[in-house]
Amino acid sequence: MVIMGLAYSLVPPLFSSGSSGAELKSATRQLAAGLRKARSEAISRKRETFLALDVEQRKFKISGDSRVFSLSRKVEVKLHAAQSELFSGHTGGIRFFPDGSSTGGRITLAVGDLIYQIDVDWMTGRVTIGE
User: Fold this and answer.
1) What is the distance between the alpha carbons of residues 106 and 80, in angstroms, rounded to a whole number?
2) Which of 1, 21, 60, 80 could form a Cys-Cys staple with 53, CB 3.0–4.6 A?
3) Which residues pair with 130 in a beta bridge?
4) How far is 131 from 123, CA to CA, in rounded Å?
5) Who's near 79: CB < 8 A, 6+ residues apart?
6) What is the pTM of this model?
7) Which domains are assigned to the chain?
């Protein structure tokens, strides 16, 4: 009976960390997809495209698109971008150019000890996800 009680007490923390990990992975993929879309738009429309990110509100928007995308409130977001692309203490972004290049940067997403990084290469505009 004691063993059963102990086993049940361990189950909720296991599910909550798994849930947080899934939310982190989902947020990372969503943001990386947004960056790739911004790059693709810049190339296909032959004009600069900007992904604006509010790390405090955990929201992002792509220029030319009226939609605002929200990330999980559980996810901590940090933006490392070119100084010219930082607008306040919590808002900035990454700009993509018609040739596919970008201003580059890194976005770090974390939930507890779980961390993902999205890197945007300034020369190629390539978006990669790393742990």
Assistant:
1) 5
2) 60
3) 117
4) 22
5) 53, 55, 86, 92, 93, 105, 106, 107
6) 0.85
7) 2-130 (3.55.40.10)
